[in-house]
Amino acid sequence: MSLEQIGANQSFGGQQLRYKHQSATLNCDMTFSIYLPPQVNNGPVPVLYWLSGLTCTDENFVQKAGAQQYAAEHGIAIVCPDTSPRGEGVADDPEGAYDMGLGAGFYVNATQQPWAEHYQMYSYVVDELPALIAAEFPVDGQRASISGHSMGGHGALVIALKNPGHFKSVSAFAPICSPLNCPWGNKTLSNYLGENIEDWKQYDTVELVKQSAVQLPVLVDQGEGDNFLAEQLKTELLIRASEVAEFPMQIRLQPEYDHSYFFIATFIGEHIAFHARALA
């Protein structure tokens, strides 16, 4: 598989790199960013996958979160995929809305047309991208964790719960906890997966917690000043489900913090330290 490097910056003794490649899973060209800490000079390092939210690309987290400092401190690579397939012929929201289509892949495998041809973000993140990273970079694929924000927090939690052997830990900032119970999820899942709500449950964190057989370390931060909290994020449903299932999760409500990267930048150091303990 040919990789084309399209960006490179030095950062905290390591390298922040950006690549383009042809994705067989998504049937289009994709970009991703990867931070390689200075410890790669001594051998393969563990890896953290970061999934971004609605309207984002692979660059938002890289440029706004300030994560490189902590990744270098702990010797962890960070891989940031794009949030959806893109390019000529890739379906988009017919009304151009931000919450479906380009920039809004929701980390599911679409089954309905016109989405199914390209929108296979779940398989891309679980299978194709990790295989590519393991083959091309000094990364230990057996020591992997996953994190994300908003739509990406939903993706990280769902992917970790559905693939417990793949990841040592999972964390999320302001995740969409239950797409079955919010407007964003109702719109995208009905379009990507069809009208049968039973088909949606496999991508709903609250539903997965109810039936999870394996409990891995979970850290969730949610700002109490987040204007999406009540209508879209439904953190209270995750708190309740984890209590009923006796699934120990660290879910922290942070007073006054909103949905922005100011919130992420404040706590990303703690999240990377959390993953470093699981990846040790």
Low-confidence stretches: none
Shape: globular
Secondary-structure element order, N to C: EEEEHHEHEHEHHHEHHEH
Q: How big is the Rg? A: 17 Å
Report strand %: 15-25%
Instruction: Quickly count the helices.
Output: 10
Q: Tell me what the CATH architecture is.
A: 3-Layer(aba) Sandwich
Largest pleated sheet: 9 strands, mixed
Return the CATH class. Answer: Alpha Beta
Overall domain count: 1
* Number of beta-strand segments: 9
> Could you give the order of strands across the largest sheet?
1-2-3-5-4-6-7-8-9
CATH superfamily: Alpha/Beta hydrolase fold, catalytic domain
**Oligomer kind:** single chain
What's the overall average pLDDT, rounded?
97
The CATH topology, please? Rossmann fold
The helix/strand class is alpha/beta
Termini gap: 30 Å
